[in-house]
Amino acid sequence: MWFDILQILIYLILLILLAIPVGHYIARVFNREKTFLDPVLNPIEEFFYKIARINPTKEMTWKEYAFSLTIFNICGIVFLYILQRIQGILPFNPQHLKAVRPDLAFNTAVSFVTNTNWQSYVGERQLSYFTQMVGLTVQNFLSAATGMAVALALIRGFIRKETPYIGNFWVDMTRTVLWLLLPLSFVLAIVLVSQGVIQNFSPYLKIATLEGKSQTLPMGPVASQEAIKLLGTNGGGFFGANSAHPFENPSPLTNFIEMLAIQIIPAAMPIAFGRFIKNKKEGIIILNVMLVLFILDTSIIYLSEYYGNPIIHSLGISQPAALEGKEVRFGIGGSALFTSVTTAVACGAVNNMHDSLTPLAGMIALLQIMLGEVIFGGIGVGLCGILIFAIFTVFIIGLMIGRTPEYLGKKIEAKEIKMATLAVIIPSAAILLGSALSVSIKEGLSSISNAGPHGLTEILYAFSSASGNNGSAFAGLKADTAYYNILLGIVMLIGRFGTIIPSLAIAGSLASKKRIPVSAGTFQSATPIFGVLLGLVILIVGGLTFFPAIALGPVLEHLLMLLHKLF
After folding, report:
1. Residue 262 to residue 267: CA distance in whole angstroms
2. What is the mean pLDDT of residues 521-534?
3. Is residue 370 within 8 Å of 306, Cβ to Cβ?
């Protein structure tokens, strides 16, 4: 136990130490300050603008920004769908895999373009090397860059004054890919290869086991996809087992590195935010709120997994019982921490099967997704999520003191509150309505592997993962059906654009406002008390929205488990 706690402490310390320089670097890149990569990347950037006929100096209103983003993502969905449907005639397909079914191709295309990376497919059985590289890996870069672009637009809304412009989507996306994601992915891929993650184009290998039986070992360009899957908070693994597969995550060291890779950019964003607005304390407060919530949730997940299931203990089986559904090479500590990291960051990569978690641990993983990407969250959009809750917080404070709410020098008025409300309600409604429909009809119930509250949790988790653009699964739900592929795909679109469009609308509204000078009546947001209030608002809104559903699922299951009742 003490070794596990030490591992978590070392992880948190290294995360903060790495987040500070990365946050400063992000701010330098998008503030157009000089970086060591400029001599190499500036000509490449200019070349892309030239062939695409993009004027990098032309700014966009929020509607133009949203339109460009939406059209670009629609084109990505169409391209990836077609690629899967014709993969049988494309190169780099040594296993001669056939075309992906229409419903599954739709689900996968939407999943990777929305940065969800929900996997109804089994990569080594259904997708060729070409599809994985040209389709999935490319979208891992572009979907992550889209999220970063939205965060930059929202930040400009707070920085700028009396202007309708919030930046240029094409410039934001291009610089995110060139200056941030590509260099980090290149370095991480090399590190992973050095630690045993495979990277090749070989056909699958057939070997003889020690028992004399034949076994097929899948091959492929894994490390290159693994790197951006983690850094871009995407989560879609090359293999169906994801980061539980030894070719994706061979050792405790790679497990530690992969967790840091998942969380490094989201943790750096508050630091970058503080530099953007020229007030480091504001960024530190947001980072502290994220850290406190993350530590609280991680502690609950770990302790629940450490003490395990009392029903199994009553059979005379002690600590090893908690390893059910986990890899021995990671242990309870490495598995619990990975679970918390991937659900807090909206990444979706898994190194253990969440369906095997204790009900309480599964509830915390589920709740982190339901809260809407605010405990670090996905790249870019995580910062957007917590800034939306900051807007709610100052609005509530304004009601309490009888003053028009202000945040970072901007008045928060009706339009911002309406858009912020939509950004919270739309994905939440998608989760609850999708789950309610699925527990009411045969097509939804036929895919669950457990009766009772655990079956409900499987469905709740699937729709939460889709709407929250997380991508991890409870694994007990058979989601590769026409019903779930189509409905979950629709929910992914609702969850993604239901938060992005309101965020851009808020950015446009804030950018057009005057800056309000600080006065005696201004509530200071760069203070610990604001951080406490922000954390409470996040938890209260999440509790009010989802407690009834959670009570019928993991809470009820945990209480019944204590009474030694199974389903």
Report:
1. 9
2. 89
3. no
Q: Which long-range contacts (CB under 8 A, 24 or more apart) does 419-425 make?
A: 419/502, 419/503, 419/505, 419/506, 419/509, 420/388, 420/391, 420/392, 420/502, 420/506, 422/498, 422/502, 423/372, 423/385, 423/388, 423/498, 423/499, 423/502, 423/503, 424/372, 424/388, 424/392, 424/541, 424/545
Average pLDDT over residues 203-212: 88
Concatenate the DSSP letters of all residues of 313-336 into one string. HTTT--GGGGGTTS-TTTHHHHHH
96 CB neighbour count, 10 Å cutoff = 8
Residue 511 φ then ψ, to 5°: -65, -30
DSSP-derived 3-state class of residue 514 = coil
DSSP one-letter code for 87: G
* Reported confidence tier of residue 400, pLDDT bands at 50, 70, 90: confident
Q: Where do runs of H (alpha helix) occur along 241-380?
A: 252-276, 280-307, 310-313, 331-344, 359-370
One-letter amino acid at 540 equals I
Q: Which residue has the tokens 């929205």?
A: 545
DSSP per-residue letters across 90-119 = SSS-TT---PPPHHHHHHHHHHHHTT----
Gap between the Cα atoms of 372 and 470, Å rounded = 10
Distance between CA atoms of residues 350 and 471, nearest Å: 9
What does the alpha-carbon distance between residue 102 and residue 212 come to, in Å, rounded to a whole number? 39
Determine how β-strand 214-217 pairs with β-strand 205-208: antiparallel
* Euclidean distance between CA atoms 146 and 170, whole angstroms: 9
Give the separation between CA 283 and CA 195, rounded to whole angstroms.
35
Q: Is the pLDDT of residue 167 over 70?
A: yes
- Which tokens hold the place of 419? 């858009």
Nearest CA to 273 among 143, 139, 386? Answer: 386
3-state DSSP of 31-86: CCCCCCCHHHHHHHHHHHHHHHCCCCCCCCEHHHHHHHHHHHHHHHHHHHHHHHHC
Contact, 114 vs 469, CB < 8 A? yes
Other beta carbons within 10 Å of 328 = 8
Render pLDDT for 169-205 as a digit per residue (tens, 0 to 9).
Answer: 999 999 999 999 999 999 999 999 999 999 999 999 9
Q: CA torsion sign, 469 to 271 to 365 to 238? A: positive
How many other C-beta atoms lie within 10 A of the C-beta of residue 167?
A: 22
318 band by pLDDT with thresholds 50, 70 and 90: low
Residue 192, number of CB atoms within 10 A of its CB: 25
Summarize pLDDT for 29-56 with one digit per residue, the tens: 999 999 999 999 999 999 999 999 999 9
H/E stretch holding 406: strand 406-407
CA atoms within a 13 Å half-sphere pointing along the CA-CB vector of 412: 25
Amino acid at 306: Y
